[in-house]
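Changelog entry: the Olfactory receptor 4C11-like record was regenerated in this release. Current contents:
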Amino acid sequence: MEIMQKNRSVSEFMLLGLTQDPTRQKMVLITLLIFYVGTVMGNLLIIVTIKFSRTLGSPMYFFLFYLSFADTCFSTSTAPRLIADALSAKKVISYNECMTQVFVLHLFGSMEIFVITLMAADCYVAIYKPLRYPTIMRRQVCIILIILAWIGSFIHSTSQIVLVLKLPFCGPNMIDHYCCDLHPLLKLACMDTYMINLQLVFNSGVICSSSFLLLMISYFVILHSLRNHSAEGRKKALSTCTTHVIVVILSFGPCIFIYTRPPITLPMDKMVTVFYTIGTLFLNPIIYTLRNTEVKNAMRKLWSVKTTESN
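Regenerated structure tokens:
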């Protein structure tokens, strides 16, 4: 810690936020509050439904449980701070809080990517190896895969924060963003950050790009194989894959845009970041519930049981 303190003279950062206009700040506050509450409530509803429903015990819903948990934590890493700053004229965040936000942001962001990848693998096995599916995707295997996803997320986030902690900050301390992230912090460092940026791109950028490419190839193979299935089987598999593809595009597109390029600031960066840290996470529960009959039926049963017990 003493080494880190010697490398910096900045103890806090100023966040410019999404806008400096008072009227727009009120609009931002109301909009983000709606999106954040909707995200948390939607994901908690999915978590509770999967936890207490006897019909949602398949590996897909096991992974969906952790995706909803990761999405809730991911949105919480930025949204409450952004909402609070919309009410404040001076948006100040301490150095330690800033580093914590970077770590948490990448921890749950990478966990979301890994869980989506596991859901694609589950879908692939279910369609390509239907007879061996119960053996391959048994409960113990799913638990091990989730543990590995947590370990991978922790390693990724730790490697990112270690690089950022090495950066010397000696002023200015104005972050042209609404949260602490890698590229805005690189711009404030009092050193040549070219090599560090390459390491950051290799870490975050490669994870996003390679995972996205792997997922799209797997879904293409899955959809191509559906021609050999029955009409009912094709319909169910196509519905599941379509849902997953939508989530993959919404989650990975902004991530690739942000983390696979040089540390330059573009006017759309803030809105793209808002979209994948808040907007996409608001849409995920809607996509997984409205397009999933099993989840909707489980929610109705759970609601009816709770209503009966209360009466």
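The longest strand covers residues 12-15.
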